[in-house]
Structure formats: C-alpha cells, structure tokens
Amino acid sequence: MQQSDNQPAAIDVVLWQYPKNGSDEKRWTRSLSSNERERAATYRFERDRTSFIAGRYLLRQLLSAHAQTPPDELVLRADACGKLTVEGRNRLQFSLSNADGLVAVAIASGCERIGIDCERADAEIEAAALESYCSPDERRWRDQVPAGERPRAAVALWTLKESHLKALGVGLRQDPRSVAFSWQDGIPVMVQSGEPDRQWHHRLIESGSRHVVALAVRSHSCAPGIHVLTFQDDNMPSE
After folding, report:
1. pTM
2. From CA 153, how far away is CA 143, in angstroms rounded?
3. How far is CA 146 from CA 65, 141, 142, 154, 164, in A?
4. How large is the average pLDDT for residues 59-74?
C-alpha cells in the first residue's frame, strides 16, 4: 500500500469482549462462510469454537463496512501461513487475533504490513518456554521488573513477537528469537543488530480486560495514528 512519506498510517484497533451465549453464537454463524462453519464444527472444546466464530463474525462486520459488501458475501482467502486477505481487495491491510473472551482486529490504511495478537494475561509460561522465544537481553529485562509483574511481562513479550511475525505473514514458522525488543520511554522498540528498526512500530494496547494486546505496524512514515475502539454487537464500533 502506497503512502506519502509524511502521512502517518491510520490504524483502527477494534476490541470485543464477546458474550458467551449460545443464541448469539447461532446468529454470528449466519455471517460465516460454509468453510468457516465447517471449521468451527471441528473444534473439540466449546470455548475454542465460540472464540473462532466470534473472531470471524467481528472481522466480517468490520471488513463489510470497508468493502461495502454484505458480511456473508465477503470471500476470505488464507495463504499457506494462514494470513487472510479479502478476494479482490488485496491492498486492504488487516489482522485478527482471538483469545478466550476477547477478539482483536486491526485495520489499516497507509501502511505496508500489520499484525495484532492478544493473549490472556494470566497465561502460564514456564521458564523453558521463556528461553525458547526470548533473547538473553529480554529475559534480563523481565527479571528486573517487580516479581508480581513478571508473568504479564512474559506474556507481553510473546504477544509483541507474535504480532510482528503475523505482520510478516510467517507466523510461528519463523523463530520468535529472531525478533528482539528493548524499551524506550516505556514503548517497545524492535532492535536489529543492536539498533532500533525505525520502519517498524510496536505498541501494547490497553484492552480493558484481562488480556494483553500487541500491535505491529511497518510504515516508512512517522509513528502511526492508532484509534482504539470497542465493538458493540449490532452497532458500529464506538470509543
């Protein structure tokens, strides 16, 4: 997607703490494609099935407004790594993530790549897993935060890395340790060979829930303008 060098990317981050209600799930499913409904039926646990359906429902509601196409008529294609595009609108940049109880969607104009990830803040990450995705510097940073904040800090590092890999379109096929972060004035900054990469912008988004949300944007312009919205079902997103 082309942009002016001095025009900041405009990002909408839409968060939805969806209700876990069987009747709602049936209504959401009507917006999904037959392939999505078939995929939903393969989930063993109800929690995972509801999360998937809620995610695709929200994504279709938002993309419908951008594409001016009814939600159930949108054709979503996934590449080999699972990255979604809208058929006929490949220039529309978006990313979807869902975790138990929350769906997060990022839609952008004026950027090259975008990725979003959300995880439960109380997710337990064992020390061995931490070593498998964090650099030595990142582990030292985590060890320096107050003990009570370390579990959330570990989840924050994971979401930052996954949002970046999703923006690249490679997902976990690439080693998470290939992406490393430091902090400048409380903002995560990706470093390459010890130097900040100024073409990438990363943020931790306040979710208003017990989730950690991370956003990754690649843009040659200045820092993107990020607008965080909450979704109200059957209505447009509102602040």
Report:
1. 0.90
2. 9
3. 44, 11, 9, 12, 26
4. 91
